[in-house]
Specification:
By secondary structure, the chain is mostly helical. 77% of the residues lie in helices and 0% in strands.
């Protein structure tokens, strides 16, 4: 008997809750046989499904607690506890298979095990649909329940793998986006630097152009001055008696002939 197995307070509490759920399931299926209305039967099955879901969670809690205490228990006690766990799993699977049978008789062939949203693997097979409670043995019920439990666990594992792969892809995508964002920031900064350099170069070219234009004007003005001076000098040399052109400072007029001076001087004339 399970009551003779030594258990820790935690295991004993979980074991008691599981047994309470089993008694509630047994009473629920007994009442289900007395219900004739299909709507009330479906509602009763939903309540029993919730009980089985809670019972499955408690069995998993029992298994985890058992593994935590396995090192501190003697081998004989561990064996008895494991046997009790297997017994509870088989009993739960029998209720699962019995629920499936009632679902088949009610015509709800598309309702999945525990309403956990499993895929095509959780849909009723043709063999399950034709079996009824009166035609199935206890071993068949246990086997069917174990099969359904395994399919449900496999579906959960597949869902976990999909979630992990999705998280991994999301993390990688976020890293790639961050790298691209940093790269775009560097490109924008580089473009700003190039634009600033182009503006500075344009300003420098304009300044150089203005300086060149100013130098050309100055050179042209000096050239005109030199040309004017040369022209005045040439005119003075060619026509020294031209009074319209003033003498250029530093440039003396040409000297008169010595002969003319002698003729006009009275002293020289008296001699």
């Amino acid at each position: 008997m399970a009551s003779n197995i030594p258990m820790s307070p935690q295991l004993e509490q979980i074991h008691g809750e599981i047994r309470d759920h089993f008694r509630a399931l047994a009473n629920g299926f007994q009442r289900l046989d007395k219900i004739k209305d299909s709507t009330r039967q479906s509602k009763q099955l939903e309540e029993l499904t919730d009980k089985m879901r809670d019972c499955k969670r408690l069995v998993k809690d029992f298994d985890r607690e058992l593994k935590d205490e396995e090192a501190s228990n003697p081998p004989e006690v561990n064996k008895q506890l494991n046997d009790e766990k297997q017994s509870m799993i088989k009993e739960l699977n029998s209720y699962v298979a019995l629920r499936k049978t009632y679902m088949s008789t009610l015509g709800n062939k598309k309702i999945e095990l525990f309403d956990m949203g499993a895929g095509p693997s959780a849909e009723p097979t043709p063999d399950d649909n034709v079996q009824v409670a009166s035609a199935m043995s206890n071993q068949e019920l246990v086997d069917a329940g174990v099969k359904r439990m395994d399919e449900t666990d496999q579906a959960i594992q597949r869902s976990k793998q999909v979630v992990e792969q999705t998280l991994e892809v999301g993390t990688q995508t976020a890293a790639n986006l961050k790298g691209q964002t940093d790269q775009m920031g560097r490109v924008v900064n580089h473009l700003d630097t190039i634009q600033f350099s182009i503006k500075k170069a344009s300003q420098l070219v304009k300044e150089i152009g203005r300086q060149v234009a100013t130098d050309k004007c100055i050179m042209m003005f000096l050239f005109l001055i030199v040309c004017g001076v040369i022209a005045i000098i040439v005119v003075k040399i060619v026509n020294p008696n031209n009074k319209d052109i003033r003498d250029i400072p530093g440039l003396a007029p040409p000297a008169q002939s010595r002969k003319l001076l002698y003729l006009r001087n009275p002293e020289y004339m008296g001699r």
